[in-house]
Amino acid sequence: MLKARPAELRDAASIAEIYNQGIDDRVATFETEHRTADSVGGLLTTRADRYPAVVVEDEDRVLGFAWTFEYRPRNAYAGVAEVSIYVAREARGRGVGRLCLEALIREAERCGFWKLVSRIFPENVASRRLCAALGFREVGTYRRHGQLDGRWMDCVIVERLLGAAAE
Ligand SMILES: CC(C)(COP(=O)(O)OP(=O)(O)OC[C@H]1O[C@@H](n2cnc3c(N)ncnc32)[C@H](O)[C@@H]1OP(=O)(O)O)[C@@H](O)C(=O)NCCC(=O)NCCS
After folding, report:
1. What digits encode the pLDDT tens for the residues 35-50?
2. pTM value?
3. What is 3-166's CATH superfamily?
């Protein structure tokens, strides 16, 4: 049975492995360099007191994660967080992503954030559908926002209001 829970330091290696699959797939991120378990552990540790992170696991292992991180350092944006979500290749299309994102939304609301934002490559239909299904609005499209393997990529900006801001 699938279960969502807060991410812990012991999840760092699983998170790195799943993240690296997403990097290799070239559908999710401008990142091209693999993460190590140590670097993921460092991120989890430095964000722990402020930015929620969740994993979804079955009986055996972690199948996906979603985490938040800083949007901008300004005080005015203290309640806005960026979101990333990644599911292990062989576990995609089984509801893991939905469970991850639902759990992260709940955690972010509990922590007092009023908005989640993300950027999605237009070609990433799975991610756009998942976000839309969970109440994210497509704000617009950044054109030629960066290059991936020498090719210009657009980015669809999405946002989801939380808590009182969503009323
Ligand atoms: C995008 C991603 C997180 C979705 O996770 P997932 O576990 O495969 O998705 P789920 O099974 O929970 O599906 C949730 C919804 O997403 C949509 N969806 C998922 N896969 C889809 C696909 N291949 N095509 C179209 N829609 C899809 C569906 O609307 C689905 O809703 P439904 O169950 O009501 O049909 C996953 O595919 C992934 O990790 N991709 C690589 C990394 C990535 O792109 N991350 C996002 C960066 S912005």
Report:
1. 999 999 999 999 999 9
2. 0.97
3. Gcn5-related N-acetyltransferase (GNAT) (3.40.630.30)
